[in-house]
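The material for today's practical consists of a large collection of protein records. Getting from the letters to the tokens is the skill we practise here. To make this concrete, we reproduce a full record directly below:
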Amino acid sequence: MSEIKAKDFDIKAKARELVSKMTLEEKVSQMLHSAKALEKHNIPAYNWWNEALHGVARAGVATAFPQAIALASTFDEDLVRRIAEVISTEGRAKYNMQQEEDDRDIYKGITFWSPNINIFRDPRWGRGQETYGEDPYLTSRLGVAFIKGLQGDDRDSLKSAACAKHFAVHSGPENDRHRFNAIVDEYDLWNTYLAAFEAAVKEGGVEVVMGAYNRTLGEPCCGSKFLLKDILRDKWGFDGHVVSDCWAIKDFHENHLITSSPLESVALAIRSGCDINCGIMFSLAAEAVENGLLSEAEIDKAVTRLFVTRMRLGILGGAPENKLYTGIPYEKVDCPEHRALNLEAARRSIILLKNEGVLPLNENNIKTIGVIGPNADNRRSLDGNYQGTPSRRVTVLEGIREIAEASGIRVMFSEGCDMLKDRRESLAQKDDRLSEARAVAKRSDAVLVVLGLDGSVEGEENDAYSESDAGDKPNIELPGRQEKMLRDVVKAAGKKPVIVVTISGSAIVSEWADENVGALIQSFYPGALGGQAVAEVIFGRFSPSGKLPVTFYRNTNDLPDFTDYNMDNRTYRYFKGEPLYPFGFGLSYASFELSGVKADKNKVTVKIKNTSSEDARETLQVYVSSPETKEIRSLCGIKPVNLHSGEERDIVIPLNKNTFSRYDEDGNMREIHGIHKLSVGFTQPDARSAALYGVKPVELTVTV
């Protein structure tokens, strides 16, 4: 640890002392994401903007893990923390190298604007892929794990700084994010939208919070007294710094029309508790002080918070050096151990949605396998957004070839169709790859069809295009000619097995595929080695264990209006219809049974046995239904368990400390008295999950 202990170095006092020696203009120069060097004060230039959503991003080679939504499908806090620890190790290694090279450019710092802990409330949102899904409890657990992995265990000696974003009620539409006003009732605000942020602050000790572009309850989030002062600092005790989303401050006067000038926007943001501006608007802060819109004391407070973070990182003002971090060599970047963890994560993220005895494929029974589809050999479909640059990518086609050709199996390939357009070649007729796809299907003993989306179709405004606008999806059905192609391939294949793999960052559905193909796999953007993991699960190298972190509705008609932020009939907690595939669902090649289930207010104890011939992992899930609450049910406990064939083990599943409580309208937790129903199993207790999985959860009650 640090040679100088934190108790011998009062970080906050040192930061205040440094600020006291600076002029107003010097202070303001530190409040932009690209902070200037001030040689007189021994302050080096520093660019605060860096990204690490699923690997160090946008600054060259780094281990490219599965996208956040894919990591969510592991339901595994420990795995997510280990991944974040690797990301911070590589972040420090790159930073150390860049300092040696005097490279202080954007994306070269150790303040990472990750994780995104917004709630994925609507599957049309292009940025939902960045989140941990639709459930506040799962998002809280994985968000806290990621933050702790990035930052380390010592708040005064940070490995890197994590940032919880986007605060708050931010979840699309992308093309309206600069002007919309998210109106929600108090129950949904506290019990859905804010819960993960509170956990990030109180449990994760997150160093940074980023305000959202939108308004919430009438106030622009980056200038909201209610969010940034009343809740974040006064109620939750947050003592890090707040950063605006990029160029969000100018939205105050240009789009939200809350202020009438740039000076007023800057004053509102800083006065409300926004300390640093991603953008250039805060360069007007000195003028705002001179015009009486701000006090210099308010500037001092903001800059002090920023210097505290840099001192906690050990990169300013004589703060203690942590040689465990400053000594991390560049050779740790994309090293074999990190690639091994990446492959483990990709394997763990794959979700088996349907299997009518088709999988795993037996290599001895196949001479030719057909691989068809626009995502079969699409390297971009591995990445998701906010991605780094992997040293090697393995597509599904490449993964299949690696295994198949080693076993003497011929691989035949056709794109089948474009992802969006009705033809691959602009001068060709419609469906110009369809005859080739049918030919491959007819000549193969088994057919793999790889469909879905990539980061060019769904994502953030300006980073993706789509059939609608700004990276959102107009609907949740397969786009373009993909379903037409699939139907033709299934017909051409006849009675031979057809396996569909969907690669996407969100729910993409085909009721026809659910009824007409032998096996269905969902692979959210699976990272650089995702194609290898998909191939391995198809050929039975491991048993799948992923679970859906979002609901797969049957069709777009099931969805409320995209711009309605109340949770009624949204997500598994409130949806009154029957989904195609429920939240928490995912099949295995193995079988398991439970016995001896008991519960009290703090935990569930259960005996689980692997009753199959396969070594496999399953995720125990606990849901609660409480009296007089809006939710149908809520996830309140998770526990991934790895068991050898025939192995039996006693498991304790800790329950969320708020399992039998809910927030009231003031954001205070209130215990709910009465009889609470718990279900313990491998899925939700709904009829659709039980029918698909084949085993009902065990139900019991707890009286409070």
